[in-house]
Design a protein that fits this description.
Layout (H helix, E strand, L loop, with lengths): L2 H31 L1 H8 L3 H29 L2 H18 L5 H15 L2 H12 L2 H32 L2 H22 L25 H9 L2 H32 L3 H31 L4 H22 L6 H26 L8 H30 L3 H20 L6
Length: 413
């Protein structure tokens, strides 16, 4: 195959994955954007909404390892397409619910459908990108987790203002369905022999046909796996806090309407996207200077999480609107760097045929952070009548995550 054809397929595959990631996070944002309207419509408390906001994360967390094992064995085309179709069905169902229990279960199914995307998608990128150029690709892919929340407020609020929160969810589900069809029709794995050195890893080679339990046991027996999982738990705790509760926090502390808070919450998410993209590019640049990609990722995550933790804790002081937005931008910029570099790190501590499984183990811990953040934030807000304690707790979680990345890995890396 000509190099230009290879690059075109490589680029189009990446853009399709980024689009899927954006829709994935727009799906998640429908409940966050509509939460005050839903709370008023169904007479729900902050604590109940905290449980509903965490519903997706429960099944997302429990699905990670099974989905990772399947992704390492089934590939990306049909597996990802089927998952996107399930997400579409769950999102449409969310628009038809009539109780808090129904919301919980529709969001739980959505979490199950979203679980394969970043696992199988990362496996796809490992197929297409060499280690020394993988940071930028994974950074852009993970950046969709910030670009989606940035795009969601203006888009979702416009639909919600025109029709309502139920119709908003149905529209998102239909777009998800179109994307699923497009992925299945377009994507194909690289043909045998055309990848060259693009899939070499820093770990020793292992057979493609290795047994499920052998793969799982091998990864769980490695110190690096546990450090990556525990450290990434803190990274996602902070990102989940901002994705789920930022609009409500802006409404409460700045006395804004639901529309104003939703639109304003999109601005800091742009910085998270910049952090994801810039962090991956920076790791690639450092790697080309002679530092190993693994060491580059480790150091970048530790440094960025310190900045994110301190900035998040500073929000507990309730600064004015302008200063609060500046602090939010810094926190999300740093968190974006940590998200992309932490995820790229996972692709560098194992072999290609175990990448999705390793990322699934890491993401199981991350999903636990995603469960705890909205739940604890809702409980603490109900208990103290303020989001201050939640931000202080998130700051401590962030510093603990930074310590894991700095001190947890063996010195050989």
């Amino acid at each position: 195959m000509l190099k230009s054809d290879w690059r075109r397929r490589q680029r189009n595959t990446l853009f399709l994955l980024v689009g899927a990631g954006c829709i994935n996070y727009v799906d998640r944002a429908t409940l966050s954007i509509g939460n005050t309207a839903i709370m008023a419509d169904m007479h729900l408390s902050y604590a109940t909404m905290g449980w509903l906001l965490s519903a997706l994360a429960w099944t997302y967390m429990l699905s990670q390892i099974p989905m990772g094992l399947l992704a390492d064995r089934l590939g990306g085309r049909v597996f990802l397409g089927g998952a996107l179709i399930l997400c579409s069905c769950a999102e449409i169902a969310f628009g038809l619910v009539d109780s808090a229990t129904s919301i919980f279960w529709s969001r739980a199914v959505l979490g199950f459908g979203e679980a394969p995307l970043f696992l199988a998608g990362t496996r796809v990128l490992v197929h297409w990108f060499a280690p020394e150029e993988r940071g930028g690709a994974i950074g852009l892919f993970n950046g969709s987790a910030s670009l989606g929340p940035a795009l969601a407020p203006p888009l979702l609020l416009a639909v919600m203002a025109w029709w309502g929160w139920r119709e908003m969810s149905v529209v998102v589900g239909i777009f998800n369905l179109f994307l699923a069809i497009g992925w299945v029709l377009y994507y194909r794995d690289p043909y045998p022999g055309e990848r060259g050195e693009a899939t070499c890893t820093t770990a020793e080679k292992a057979g493609e046909g290795s047994a499920v339990w052998k793969d799982l046991g091998y990864l769980l027996g490695r110190r690096e796996t546990w450090v990556a999982m525990l450290g990434y738990t803190g990274v996602v705790y902070l990102s989940s806090l901002f994705v789920t509760w930022l609009p409500a926090w802006l409404q409460k502390t700045e006395d804004l309407s639901a529309v104003q808070a939703g639109l304003l919450s999109a601005l800091p998410q742009v910085f998270s996207f910049v952090g994801c993209l810039g962090g991956g590019k920076l790791v690639d640049m450092i790697s080309r200077s002679g530092v190993s990609p693994l060491t580059s990722c480790q150091r970048m995550v530790a440094i960025s999480m310190v900045f994110c933790a301190v900035s998040t804790a500073a929000l507990a002081a309730q600064p004015g609107q302008g200063l609060a937005l500046a602090i939010l931008a810094l926190a999300l910029l740093a968190n974006g760097v940590a998200v992309s570099c932490g995820w790229a790190l996972g692709t560098l501590i194992t072999t290609e045929n175990r990448v999705a499984t390793l990322e699934a183990i890491q993401n199981t811990g991350a999903s636990f952070g995603g469960v705890l953040a909205p739940l604890l934030t809702g409980v603490l807000a109900a208990r103290f009548g303020s989001f201050g304690p939640s931000f202080l707790l998130a700051g401590m979680v962030g510093l603990l995550s930074a310590s894991m990345y700095h001190y947890g890995f063996s010195r050989e890396i």
